[in-house]
Amino acid sequence: MREISGLYAVTPDDADTPRLTARAEAALAGGARLLQYRNKAASPATRLAQARALAALCRRFRVPLIINDHLELALAVGADGLHLGAEDGSLAAARARLGPGKILGASCYDRLALALEAEGRGADYVAFGSFFPSGVKPGAVRAPLELLRDAKRRLPLPVVAIGGITPENAPQLIAAGADGIAVISALFEADDVAAAARRFSALFLRRELTTPHA
User: Fold this and answer.
1) Is 181 contained in some domain?
2) Active site positions, annotated
């Protein structure tokens, strides 16, 4: 199973496939360790075309492509994994369809209980948030920072933080135990996407350099 850590780039809704692909390429060039294809507004045909383009891009960079919500799409393009929200289908059923070699992630919002259930149903990582106000999901429930510490104590799985994350507020999430940070706006809306990705990625390098090793 691939490591779930560092900058987890999550694509914005964008109907322009060449522009989306170019921005995703910049994020990967800047150090993103995973890429999630998430497009809530696209038609099925556009989703398929975009997912195929991103799958080819991720193979070139040797970075996992995770598909948000759509199991059949993930299978169709040979994606490396799937991410499901609480209302997006059964984790156990998705695991059975994906097989043991694919990544399965679960949104757990502000609820540790959901994360514990997700572990039992085959998830490889759990995501909590929103930790900060989010333009993508302005009505999202807010998760407390202590949730990351609790999750790291209770779960053997990697923990991802999401929601309104910027280079300025990300360090506190990383310090609280987040293995990865999932970013949409502060990455893809940056004037220089690659530079923004490098800035986020440097936060994890700093942690690696300051973490004592046995």
Assistant:
1) yes
2) 38, 107, 137
148: domain range? 6-210
Residue 85 lies in a domain: yes
Domain count, the chain: 1
With tokens 């609480």, the residue in question is: 86
The pair phi, psi for residue 85, each rounded to 5°, is -85, 175
Q: Give pTM, 2 decimals.
A: 0.94
| Main-chain phi, psi angles of 35, to 5 degrees | -130, 125
Is pLDDT above 80 for 94?
Answer: yes
Tell me the CATH number at 110: 3.20.20.70
Q: Give the tens place of pLDDT for each residue, 119-172.
A: 999 999 999 999 998 877 777 889 999 999 999 999 999 999 999 999 999 999
Cα separation, 40 vs 199, in Å, equals: 27
pLDDT, one tens digit per residue, over 174-187 is 999 999 999 999 99
Q: Which residue has the tokens 């075309």?
A: 49
- Torsion angles phi and psi, residue 38, rounded to 5: -130, 115
Q: How far apart are CA 159 and CA 115, in angstroms?
A: 9
**Distance between CA 16 and CA 75 in Å, rounded?**
23
Tokens for 214, please give them.
């046995």
In a domain, 166, yes or no: yes
Where do we find the tokens 């149903």?
121
In a domain, 1, yes or no: no
